[in-house]
Design a protein that fits this description.
Layout lengths: L45 E6 L16 H10 L4 E3 L10 E3 L14 E5 L16 H11 L32 E5 L2 E5 L7 H4 L10 H4 L18 E3 L19 E2 L3 E6 L19 E6 L3 H10 L4 E2 L6 H9 L7 E14 L9 H10 L2 H7 L6 E3 L29 H8 L20 E6 L4 H14 L4 E6 L1 H8 L8 E7 L7 H8 L19 H7 L12 H8 L3 H19 L2 E12 L4 E3 L2 E2 L4 E2 L5 E2 L8
Helix pairs in contact: 7-9, 12-14, 14-15
């Protein structure tokens, strides 16, 4: 998954339940910043959104959370040393200082970066203390701790000296110095051109050891996350942080029901003039509702201000798009997300490249796009990377598995299947026992359930019989990402960039170093070795598994046009010589807002609604 979007990186969905929010006293949230409305946009009110599930991959614990919705929340709750500017368009890819006084230059040898923290930035309740360099260092110590399952720790392992991801507990890292409370220095093993970009990732935000250190297994810290950003989880001030035993979950976050964010009284906007965060609303209230139709009915009725990541039902979308008075309430924007069907290259029959190519030809991508509500939901994907990620070096019209009308081609698929060892009589149909009764993991919500019959039908045309297993979003990801489960094929896969560079797709999804027993982003197991397979408890195919580790390393070592060209060539190699997946859609996020929303924007890095950038005029008080 990505980074999953609803999720991954995937539109995400789940359970309905009523929530009685715990009381928030007046001291639990700060008033809106004083002064005139920013750009004429009034502050205040409560932004109320509905969603079918949070779809968090790690319970919102920043160390391991790898879902786009989770990152959207963390954007409002946390600050990092540097960040991308919160603004639409190309300006949204500009790197600016956040906790740091400036964006530093690398040392002359490219092996160290020194940051100085701005004074006066504090953690929110219940700590209300200054953030120090030790808090930033502790975030990296958690990233380096094996039991905490840092899903994107690979961005730092082997890059920051002393970071391997294998530490049994958070301990000092040799490559990170904190000579004083406001200075932190990173020492690298090799020049890494995108290291500053990596420091925008949520897991690098400062974490207080006295609270985060109480959570020693994956996903624990999310319900007691101490804010450094403009918002905090409601009920933060009620947490007793005097000891680990005294800490109870913050009342404003129930993962199966709702979340309420309120203003962080410790946040000082005068320390945050570069990021572009606006923090218009006084609170954000997110409610889980298992009925997608109900969510959109409530938006139109005015009891919700907006949807979040759920794809609107086709009837709802058509209603809005055909009504001039509603059309402007539909917001469709790309988020760098590629949706794909993933194949496990260690599991027969997908250990045969000709089977994988046959699958690539047979899938009716047009039907899958239609299941997502048609063209407004995104462009049909002809390759893994959305072309703009290659910065002008994508080959125009590149589509190695082109079929008429993107509807799939039985003749091309059968021609590939005939070359496979699993087609014993060479009639273009997979007739070996390995092609029967294959578990195919899928999400249990639309559009995945809508797509499922098409995929089952298409695979059956070439003799691949799958048995769908529909799971709640988080369960689907967790099932596929646990290597020992040995899932042969899945439909719930997707990925979006962690920052706008091809490395953030191709390294986590295809480098062998990203393979882990659980929380594994390399679900195709590209680059897996026989020894690694043995340690993971799975079988290894006689023909081995293709690797692109050296090619990824070569691309990561260069910059500028050479870097983009290198990535473009690697993508072609993956699509034509490895074929680990079937990309079918570069999807959009579609949000429908109600009449109370006065300002809505999405920036290219946040890849979705940034809660700090939305304004409402509903005049509602902070939830109590």
């Amino acid at each position: 998954m990505t980074r999953s979007t609803p999720g991954t990186r995937s539109l995400i969905c789940g359970l309905l339940a009523a929530l009685v929010l715990a009381s928030c006293t007046s001291s639990s949230s700060a008033p809106a910043p004083s002064g005139p409305p920013a750009g004429g946009i009034a502050r205040g009110g409560v932004y109320r959104v509905g969603v079918t599930t949070f779809g968090n991959t790690d319970g919102l614990d920043p160390t391991g959370e790898y879902g786009i919705p989770g990152w959207g929340l963390l954007d409002a709750l946390q600050r990092t040393l540097v960040t991308f500017k919160f603004t639409p368009g190309d300006a949204g890819t500009q790197l600016v200082p956040d906790l740091a006084t400036e964006v530093p230059q690398a040392s002359s040898d490219g092996l160290s970066y020194t940051f100085h923290l701005k004074p006066g930035i504090k953690f929110g309740p219940p700590l209300n203390r200054d953030i120090t360099s030790a808090d930033v260092a502790y975030a990296f110590q958690r990233l380096n701790t094996k039991p905490l399952v840092a899903e994107y720790g690979f961005y730092f392992y082997g890059i920051v000296k002393g970071m391997t991801g294998s530490a049994p507990s958070p301990t000092p890292i040799s490559g990170i110095e904190t000579p004083d409370k406001s200075t932190i220095i990173f020492h690298l093993t090799q020049p890494t051109g995108d290291f500053l970009y990596r420091l925008t990732l949520p897991a690098t935000a400062p974490m207080p050891a006295e609270v985060a250190g109480c959570f020693k297994t994956a996903g624990g810290y999310g319900r007691d996350l101490i804010a450094s950003g403009p918002y905090m989880i409601a009920g933060s001030e009620q947490v007793d942080a005097s000891s680990c035993a005294a800490i109870q979950p913050m009342s404003g976050f129930d993962p199966s029901r709702s979340m309420t964010l309120v203003r962080n009284p410790a946040y000082d906007p005068t320390t945050d003039t570069d990021s572009g965060r606006k923090a218009y609303v006084n609170a954000v209230q997110i409610t889980i509702d298992s009925s997608i139709a109900d969510i959109f009915q409530k938006v139109q009725a005015g009891s919700l201000d907006a949807s979040w990541y759920d794809l609107p039902p086709a009837t709802v979308l058509q209603q809005y798009l055909s009504d001039p008075t509603l059309k402007n309430d539909v917001h469709a924007f790309g988020n760098g997300n590629v949706q794909f069907i993933t194949m496990n290259m260690t599991h027969p029959p997908f250990d045969d490249i000709h089977v994988r190519k046959a699958v690539s030809y047979i899938i009716d991508k047009a039907a899958l796009q239609k299941s997502w509500s048609g063209p407004i939901s995104g462009d049909i994907a002809s390759s893994i990377l959305p072309p703009y990620v290659l910065q002008g070096h994508a080959t125009p019209g590149y589509d190695p598995y082109a079929t008429p009308g993107n509807a799939g081609s039985l003749s091309k698929a059968m021609a590939e299947m005939k070359l496979s060892a699993y087609d014993t009589n060479k009639d273009g149909i997979c007739d070996a026992s390995a092609c029967k009764n294959l578990i195919m993991v899928n999400q249990n919500i639309a559009p995945w359930t809508t797509m499922e019959p098409y995929v089952v039908r298409d695979l059956a045309k070439i003799g691949i019989q799958v048995v769908p297993r529909e799971l709640e979003t988080s369960a689907a990801y967790n099932t596929v990402q646990r290597v020992a489960n040995d899932i042969p094929i899945s439909m719930n896969a997707n990925w979006a960039y962690d920052y706008a560079d091809a490395y953030t797709y191709l390294a986590p999804m295809f480098d062998s170093s990203s393979i882990s027993a659980s929380g594994n982003p390399n679900t195709t197991l590209t680059g897996l070795t026989a020894s690694a397979a043995k340690s993971l408890g799975i079988s290894y195919p006689a023909g081995g598994v293709p690797s692109v580790d050296a090619k990824i390393a070569a691309c990561e070592a260069v910059a500028g046009d050479a870097r983009a060209i290198c990535w473009a060539n690697l993508e072609k190699y993956l699509m034509q010589d490895v074929v680990p997946m079937v990309p079918y859609l570069w999807s959009n996020v579609i949000v429908i807002t109600g009449s109370t929303v006065t300002h809505f924007e999405a920036d290219p890095i946040s890849q979705g609604t940034t809660f700090t950038q939305v304004a409402v005029n509903n005049g509602l008080p902070v939830p109590a």
